[in-house]
Design a protein that fits this description.
By secondary structure, the chain is α/β, with parallel strands linked by helices. Helices cover 30% and strands 23% of the residues. Strands 3, 4, 5, 6, 7, 8, 9, 10, 11 and 15 form a 10-stranded mixed sheet that branches. A hairpin with a 2-residue loop joins strand 12 and strand 13.
Length: 439
């Protein structure tokens, strides 16, 4: 008898096998194509259109979503006619804790959650979140990615893609890769020397034109294949789901030698931004105004990113505090996204320092394979490292530690700790910063 899980896997395999041959119009909701037409014509879709969508979202929430009907002293009629900035300001900021404490109250009261898609985040901040959405919303989101990555010739349903992510995970006894339709699925847990030959052979056979991956996984693959890379002809590397360090980007650029696109987004689907990386460095992030309404909430000197989805009529999250930090200017650009609150470190004077700023020098990669910054007490950090060729020599330890003390010794007491491995989290990502202190 076929179990539900087996049936789901069978249907997924059939879908991805047939997808390259189906007309695109048969795959996506009509709104997918409507938004792509707007983006192609107006670039970012136009601020006026974004404001129209924001007003519609606020009025919809006040009419059909219990949380907003109960907590916001505003009528749907007022939301439709009063000055938009004043209307938005009447909605209080929203946190992940609030959403998860009263999850169903954020769902459109007319909808049955059993007929919706439900997705949860990996909980890299220590707490996950679950959100409902429809296929229409998933197709709308793909329209923004198709527009941005279409600059490189990318297509979700036609391009040959090397995919490294949670959806590509395999069990320990299984092989590292499998082909599903137009995608070569490579398990992030299997990218190590024991599977190098199988990985290289699979890539050589498949010849992907695009890599869609976590930055940490793409960098690990780049290091694994650097000595004898297979033939690929990759046109663009598309990175998502976690921050990318300069060392990771350098490794990816060396192997693939093509444009790199970085994507900032989150499971809550309230904000979306892209940045390009090439031989000249990483450009500013560009927040997509027609996807979500992005603003800053000031927290001392820090600017927290706050977002409102402009299309989520299933489970609208309004003025949602992302826990990420970065100053967004009037044109929707952000020089750097400093990472989530749990990725900040506390120095010996009680000040908060972006943990992602603590990176190892380029020369260090010759003898270090992985690293992680850990904090247990304010003013102290541990640099955990995995040697590339076993344990580090005394002079290598001294070089690594002295370099960090020159740069960060005024902020932290720094110690070095060697590890045999830094394992991936359950979502297939490897955390760069682990802090026992609250965000």
């Amino acid at each position: 008898m076929t179990t539900p899980g087996t049936l789901h896997d069978w249907m997924a395999r059939r879908y991805y096998a047939w997808r390259p041959w189906l007309p695109t119009r048969a795959l996506y909701h009509p709104d997918h194509f409507r938004i792509r037409a707007w983006l192609a014509r107006d670039g970012d879709g136009g601020l006026a259109r974004a404001r129209e969508r924001l007003r519609a979202t606020l009025a919809h929430a006040l009419t059909h979503v219990p949380h907003y009907r109960d907590s916001v002293r505003l009528s749907a009629a007022e939301a439709q006619h009063e000055p938009l900035d004043e209307v938005l300001a009447r909605f209080p900021y929203l946190t992940k804790d609030e959403v998860m404490a009263r999850q169903r109250s954020f769902l459109d009261c007319r909808l049955d959650p059993r007929r919706l898609l439900y997705a949860t985040s990996g909980g890299s901040s220590g707490q996950g979140i679950g959100v409902w959405r429809s296929k229409r919303l998933a197709d709308i989101e793909k329209a923004f990615f198709a527009h941005e990555w279409g600059r490189f010739g990318f297509s979700f349903d036609k391009a040959r893609i090397l995919r490294i992510g949670a959806d590509a995970r395999r069990l320990a006894h299984e092989g590292p890769a499998r082909v599903v339709g137009n995608r070569l699925m490579l398990s992030p847990y299997h990218i190590h020397a024991g599977h190098r030959a199988a990985i290289a052979a699979a890539i050589e056979r498949f010849r992907p034109r695009y890599v869609h991956a976590y930055p940490s996984s793409a960098a690990t693959l780049a290091e694994l294949l650097a000595a004898d890379p297979p033939t690929m002809g990759v046109r663009a590397v598309l990175l998502a789901s976690e921050p990318a360090t300069p060392g990771q980007l350098a490794a990816i650029e060396r192997l693939f030698g093509c444009p790199i696109s970085l994507n900032y987004g989150l499971s809550e689907r309230t904000n979306l931004a892209f940045a390009d990386h090439n031989q000249h460095g990483t450009m500013n992030y560009r927040f997509q105004p027609l996807y979500g309404w992005s603003e800053n909430r000031m927290e001392g000197e820090r600017c927290e990113i706050v977002g409102t989805s402009l299309w989520n009529d299933v489970m609208p999250l309004i003025r949602y505090r992302t826990g990420d930090y970065g100053r967004i200017d009037a044109n929707g650009r952000c020089a750097a996204i400093d990472g989530r609150g749990h990725e900040f470190l506390v120095d010996r004077n009680g000040r908060r320092v972006p943990g992602l700023a603590i990176s190892i020098d380029e020369a260090t990669w010759d003898f270090v394979r992985l690293y992680q910054v850990r904090q247990r007490r304010p003013g102290e950090i541990i640099l955990a490292v995995v040697g590339r060729h076993g344990r580090l020599a005394p002079e290598q330890r001294a070089f690594l530690l002295e370099a960090q003390q020159r740069r960060w010794g005024g902020f932290f007491d720094i110690s070095l700790q060697e590890e045999s491995d830094i394992p991936l989290a359950p979502n297939g990502k490897r955390r760069l910063v682990v802090s026992a202190l609250s965000a």
